[in-house]
Design brief:
Length: 462
């Protein structure tokens, strides 16, 4: 595919941490990149488990200086092992190890600063957590070069990939970033870019949210007007349900951007929920491909694009998330007294707590929150001492189940089939939301009933 100037469009390919666990995984990755046989942009995550290790160290290093040596020693040892596995040429191995040591030395300086001040400024936290990806891109670039592939590392700060400047969960500013990205990634070669972060207009590193390498790959694809975003996984693509929970799940060949976003938000785990955000507006397709079957055929895996398809049973997939809790605020006046919800949501926002959804009635406000935020949110609202709220209850041990499919709201009887399937298994629905999304209905059940609910719905529709 060519752009308006007759130049072949680039493909952006994303490889996650699950593709970077062991030597065999990296060899598969090299094989895939070679098979493309064209200029492209590779976006990589940190090696498997590295980001979690960095997060753990951020806390420990504030009090324990020995954690600095522990972390940097672990990273150097791990990367040296990768280098020894992939570079039989001692000269290339030595050069790559020197570059790794330089980056780990940079990281060490940040960690030392944290130890001496005893806290982690948010801009420093973002820099430190970006080092997992920085080390991945450095190593992969050297590995590709040693395999005869014309590859170059391109860091987000060198483009620059400009964001709105929000630490921890930034959004790429496509208008400001596009020109620099196109210029930096213009040559006919393979570029390797660390995912997960961009930079503010002032040049400070800003993370794109946990798991944000998918989103950063999508943002680059948007800036480049790419032919496609290819996301390589160790699974076939989106399925009708989690293969660990149901027998004979069905591969979903085609999804709209909205369907993919809803499935991702409710825990499907194939894409980061924000991945489709940069692509939907200009229609760049996302292809989910399996690195184990190694097939770049357009008919393989799942294609996420603009084309809408309504399947016979309407429901394309049923998924779940255990990261939802309910904070129930009761009171005879919450539905009629002005400003109650605004005051509550404002206080939670100032505390950095995201409200996932709100379900209201005349006597109750139900806030759907992340499990990690529920206790803190309870304390914050309790301290507000709002007269309209006479009772509060935090409800945990819940699962949110989502059924997704185009046409869900237009076809009668779908909700009835869902309710009947759950009733046959004696599963009580604690709360339900339908109509907020044109392609999704979600409901809440006790966590202990989650697996039974998924199986019952899947059996009914598939």
């Amino acid at each position: 595919m060519f752009n308006d100037y007759g130049v072949m469009k680039k493909i952006v390919a994303k490889f996650g941490g699950s593709n970077l666990k062991k030597r065999e995984d990296i060899l598969k990755l090299v094989k895939v990149i070679r098979a493309y046989d064209r200029p492209m942009v590779i976006v990589v995550s940190a090696f498997y488990g590295i980001t979690n290790r960095l997060i753990k160290s951020l806390e420990a290093v504030q009090k324990d200086e020995a954690e600095i040596q522990s972390l940097t020693g672990f990273l150097l040892s791990m990367k040296e092992e990768v280098i020894q596995e992939h570079f039989p040429d001692s000269e290339i191995a030595e050069r790559t190890m020197i570059e790794v040591e330089q980056r780990v030395s940079e990281l060490k300086r940040y960690l030392t600063g944290i130890h001496y001040i005893g806290e982690v400024p948010e801009f420093v936290e973002d820099v430190i957590l970006s080092y997992g990806e920085r080390l991945s891109s450095l190593l992969l670039t050297s590995i590709l070069q040693s395999n005869g592939i014309d590859a170059e590392e391109a860091l987000p700060e060198d483009m620059p990939l400009i964001t709105d400047g929000e630490f921890g969960n930034a959004t790429v500013d496509y208008n400001r970033a596009s020109a620099g990205v196109k210029r930096k990634l213009s040559e006919d070669k393979v570029y390797v870019v660390p995912g997960f972060y961009g930079v503010s207009r002032e040049g400070k590193v800003t993370l794109l949210g946990r798991g944000g390498s998918d989103y950063s790959a999508a943002a680059l694809a948007r800036c480049l007007d790419a032919e496609s975003l290819d996301v390589w996984k160790d699974v076939e693509g989106f399925m009708s349900a989690d293969p660990k929970l149901v027998d004979n799940p069905v591969l979903i060949k085609s999804l709209t951007y909205t369907e993919a976003a809803e499935l991702s938000y409710f825990g499907a785990g194939i894409l980061h929920p924000r991945t489709v955000e940069p692509l939907k507006e200009i229609g760049i397709p996302v292809r989910i491909l399996n690195i184990d079957t190694f097939n770049t055929d357009i008919d393989c895996g799942t294609m996420v694009h603009t084309s809408s398809t309504v399947v016979a049973g309407i429901i394309k997939s049923v998924t779940f998330s255990d990261d939802f809790c309910v904070l129930k605020l009761r009171g005879a006046g919450v539905g009629v007294k002005r400003g109650v919800l605004a005051k509550v949501s404002g206080s939670l926002d100032r505390a950095g707590i995201n409200i996932k959804s709100v379900i209201t009635s005349q006597i109750a406000i139900n806030l759907l929150l992340s499990a990690r935020d529920i206790k803190r949110a309870y304390r914050i609202i309790e301290r507000m001492d709002l007269s309209a709220i006479t009772e509060m209850e935090a409800i945990e041990q819940l699962s949110t189940i989502a059924t997704v499919g185009e046409g869900l709201l237009e076809h009668p009887g779908v909700a009835g089939r869902i309710f009947s399937a759950l009733a046959s298994e004696n599963i009580n629905i604690r709360m339900i939301v339908s109509g907020a999304s044109s392609v999704a209905t979600y409901f809440i059940v006790a966590a202990s009933k989650r697996d039974s609910a998924i199986k019952a719905i899947h059996q009914e529709f598939f």
